[in-house]
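hey m, so remember when u said the tokens were messed up on ur end? i reran from scratch. heres the input so u can diff it against urs
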Amino acid sequence: MCKLSVIIPVYNEEGSIAQVINEWASTLNKEQIDYQLCAYNDGSKDQTENILNDLLKTHPHLKVFHKKNAGHGPTILQGYKENLNSEWLFQVDSDNEIKAHNFIKLWEKKDQYDFLIGKRINRNGPLPRKIISYISYLSIRIFYGKGIEDINCPFRLMRTSFINEFIDCIPNDTFAPNVIISGMACLKKGRLFTYPVNFEFRKTGTVSIKKWKLLKAAIKSFFQTIKFRLSY
């Protein structure tokens, strides 16, 4: 059994993915953790696939999965479900907006908790994203319970034996599985730990969901989240 699987969804990140993999490998090697980096290439159309294949030559802990485009959420969920044999799962995005060194504080605290998550600071995004984030937060607090503020933060360390209780019940096409998982962590009264992490806006790549598509996606996520809670 691997101690830690790091799930990294990747889509059109040719400008950052090498740096992200290098930084995570360096950080985890220094800590002497038994780990694997699981990069899930979600049908990238740029040079991401070639870069990941080249990185395999120099990173023995790296595993690369090339798949058809399914979206960020389904890709994350696939990564979780395919690595449940690890003791811990950690998820981070490939845009380098949250640096690898922040992980150490979560890892140091892991023995006392089931679910450890970052809370992004210095994140002054556009007003629509702030409104959507707040609505998601309220929906989790009302239907699942309180305990996590930044419910969709892509910087989370989860004890596999804890999420195993419900992870297979989440539909594979769920748009924002991390929101539901955060809700379930609250509902199940897991031992929760939140740690503030610095957030830096991406310097490469592009945001995949913009303008009206963002609102449409938020509505879809909201109803999926509520539907899951009512059916669980």
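this time it looks ok to me. The domain at 4-231 is CATH 3.90.550.10 (Spore Coat Polysaccharide Biosynthesis Protein SpsA; Chain A). if urs says something different then somethings off w ur setup not the seq
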